[in-house]
């Protein structure tokens, strides 16, 4: 083995070879680049469903990158399975590593993982460098005049747009430096069974941008029976598309869609600055709410058997496809936290298990928004009426009929809680906690 120093590029939630910030930095570092992906057992061991579609999706994308590197670029992707710290201890003993490059992850557990890897590499005089890739602005790039983080979206969005120069949306020209990979024979493949997982039957959405869907997004996005959203959230979550490329198009075609991308950056910024929001209400007083936490009601909510057709349709769509329309996500979250007075953390945890596009920052942000306890949240006295939401956003009942075929038949259950009673109970309980 040659002792010429090399660097490692560590793929994580950036599974693409084009317009990849950290990969570009590695390829232009002057060192040959060994690409690595780690199937992290600290994450995988927590997953009970051995047909978890996210694992299948990641495995599929990693396999594709490895194949491309081997067939077109004379290198390979080294795929490992284990704890990242242990893997890096092995890697630096096997290869003459001078530097490690990666893209940042802002989730608290990821920051702890990276800190441990950083400290180990530092002890070996190996530089560990992280770069911004999954967002346009991160950490403290968009802040209030006093240097503190924004806690309300609209002023954040305005500052964001005022700061947004073409530079921030430029693609990284990875292809120009693609020859700077470490030359090697193909590494061994890892199968799903090697990971103790199986293939999922879930259909993965297309990553190609549908310009017409983006152009009409503001008109169609709230109607779950229409194909009014891009379904790109999965690809943004795992970095199989570039946020910069999508943002350039969104900025040009539809400001409402562009704002949704800004919400994504906003929630990542909030999670970075307020990591305790993973388990605690952003607005501390809301942790005093006396939840009902009725386990039977929670089970019926999970199964889509609440007697409220729009809620039930959403939960059944989620259980069958690992996806739920965003408007319906708001309705089911409001229903759980306000109608059933069940702790938002229960719902957030259920979504964390089920959602193909699960992103911790956005999911926590969305659930705390619905419960009234998060940044820029819906006020506690805003309680979605599921029947009115149905009439407004599924007026022909197309969505409900698709997912709740027994609706309007004797087989369909009665509502598990009456709307007026539930609303008044929620208002009283919230008011009591906040007084």
TrEMBL record:
InterPro entries: Crypto/Photolyase_FAD-like_sf, Crypto/Photolyase_N_sf, Cryptochr/Photolyase_FAD-bd, Cryptochrome/DNA_photolyase_1, DNA_photolyase_1_CS_C, DNA_photolyase_N, Rossmann-like_a/b/a_fold. FAD binds at residues 217, 229-233, 257, 260-267, 357-359. Its cofactor is (6R)-5,10-methylene-5,6,7,8-tetrahydrofolate; FAD. GO terms for molecular function: deoxyribodipyrimidine photo-lyase activity; DNA binding; FAD binding. It comes from the Bacteria. Binds 1 FAD per subunit. One of its GO terms (biological process) is nucleobase-containing compound metabolic process. The record marks 291, 344, 367 as: Electron transfer via tryptophanyl radical. Pfam families: DNA_photolyase, FAD_binding_7. Belongs to the DNA photolyase family. This is Deoxyribodipyrimidine photolyase. It comes from Owenweeksia hongkongensis (strain DSM 17368 / CIP 108786 / JCM 12287 / NRRL B-23963 / UST20020801).
């Amino acid at each position: 083995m040659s002792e010429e120093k090399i660097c490692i590029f560590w793929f994580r939630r950036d599974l693409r070879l084009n317009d990849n910030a950290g990969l570009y930095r590695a390829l232009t570092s002057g060192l040959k680049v060994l690409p690595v992906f780690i199937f992290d057992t600290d994450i995988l061991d927590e997953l009970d469903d051995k047909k978890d579609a996210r694992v299948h999706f990641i495995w599929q994308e990693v396999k594709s990158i490895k194949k491309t590197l081997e067939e077109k670029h004379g290198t390979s992707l080294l795929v490992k399975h284990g704890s990242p710290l242990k893997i890096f201890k092995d890697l630096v003993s096997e290869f003459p590593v001078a530097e490690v490059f990666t893209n940042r992850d802002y989730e608290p557990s990821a920051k702890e993982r990276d800190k441990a890897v950083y400290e180990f590499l530092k002890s070996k005089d190996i530089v560990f460098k992280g770069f911004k890739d999954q967002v346009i602005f991160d950490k403290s790039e968009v802040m209030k005049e006093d240097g503190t983080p924004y806690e309300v979206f609209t002023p954040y969005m305005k500052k964001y747009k005022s700061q947004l120069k073409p530079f921030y949306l430029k693609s990284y020209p990875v292809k120009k430096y693609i020859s700077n990979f470490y030359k090697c024979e193909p590494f061994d493949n890892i199968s799903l069974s090697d990971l103790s997982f199986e293939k999922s039957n879930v259909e993965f959405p297309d990553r190609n941008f549908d310009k017409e869907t983006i152009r009409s997004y503001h008109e169609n996005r709230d109607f779950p029976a229409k194909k009014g959203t891009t379904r790109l959230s999965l690809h943004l979550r795992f970095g199989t598309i570039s946020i910069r490329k999508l943002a350039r198009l969104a900025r040009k075609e539809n400001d409402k869609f562009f704002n949704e991308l800004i919400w994504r950056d906003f929630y990542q910024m909030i999670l970075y600055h307020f990591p305790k929001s993973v388990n605690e209400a952003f607005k501390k007083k809301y942790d005093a709410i006396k939840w009902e936490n009725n386990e039977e009601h929670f089970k019926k909510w999970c199964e889509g058997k609440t007697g409220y057709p729009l809620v039930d349709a959403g939960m059944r769509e989620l259980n069958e496809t690992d996806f739920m329309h965003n408007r319906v996500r708001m309705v089911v979250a409001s229903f759980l936290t306000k109608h059933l007075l069940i702790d938002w953390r229960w719902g957030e945890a259920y979504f964390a298990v089920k959602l193909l596009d699960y992103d911790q920052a956005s999911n926590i942000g969305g659930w705390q928004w619905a419960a009234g306890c998060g940044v820029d949240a819906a006020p506690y006295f805003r309680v979605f009426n599921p029947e009115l939401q149905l009439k407004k956003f599924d007026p022909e009942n197309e969505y409900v009929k698709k997912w709740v075929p027994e609706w309007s038949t004797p087989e369909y259950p009665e509502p598990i809680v009456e709307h007026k009673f539930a609303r008044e109970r929620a208002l009283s309980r919230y008011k009591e906690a906040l007084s």
